[in-house]
Amino acid sequence: MAWNKLSDYKTSAIESAGKGMVQYHSTVIVEWTAKTITLRSGGWETVTTKRKMNQASHQFVLGFGVSQRDHVWYVKRPDGKEVPFRDGMKMKRESV
Asked: Is residue 6 part of a domain?
């Protein structure tokens, strides 16, 4: 299994004209436009959800990363700043 590419197990991804989304089970976990990125766990802050978010970031060159310390998720935004994860959080997408 490639750690930097999404699998299709219970996962779908759509990208078109600079915007897209990744859905895992019934939750759109990553959604992006030319200007923003939105992250959602749907209440499932699991290792697999976090891994799929990171795979989406790498595969679609979104520039964020999700990590965990002491059972708390953190997001390194495209601007390099690390902030606590909030379900439904929206961040600015940096130009790539």
From this structure: no
Blockwise average pLDDT, block size 10, the chain, 96 residues? 79 93 97 97 95 96 96 95 97 80
Report helix, strand or coil for 88: coil
The reported pLDDT for the residue numbered 7 is 87
**The domain containing residue 81 runs over which residues?**
11-92
Q: What is the largest CA-CA distance in the chain?
A: 38
Count: domains in the chain: 1
4 belongs to a structural domain: no
Q: What Å distances lie between residue 91 and 24, 37, 45, 48, 76, CA to CA?
A: 20, 5, 19, 22, 10
Q: What is the pTM of this model?
A: 0.92
Amino acid at 42: G
Residue 5 lies in a domain: no
